Amino acid sequence: MGCGDMAFLGVLIGFLISLVISAIIIFIAAKLLGEKEGFGTAILAALAGAVIFGLVSYFLGIGIIASVIAGIVWLIALSSLYQMGWLKSFVVAVIIWIFAAIVSYVLPTVTGPL
Prior knowledge:
This protein is an all-alpha fold. It has a domain at 37-99. Helices cover 81% and strands 0% of the residues. Helix 3 crosses helix 4.
């Protein structure tokens, strides 16, 4: 396995770990608000979010306008996947963002100093 193959494998593993962590957060947030869909829907929502933010960033760059546009499009996807209204989608998204912020702060420190 060459250096390029190892780099690709590392990126792929990182993406899959991020996808699963995001899906767990989405699943918990949706369950807190009474949604009945399973973990598969949370995986689809996490994947949709990754694709939406990736595409918007690619075409518009990174910035507040791109983030707002991507966030709105992701709310549409979330609303559609969970078949819920805009307000509930927004509340779920806020809960997801709070959990994600906590996880992104705590997770890198789990292994302790190296």
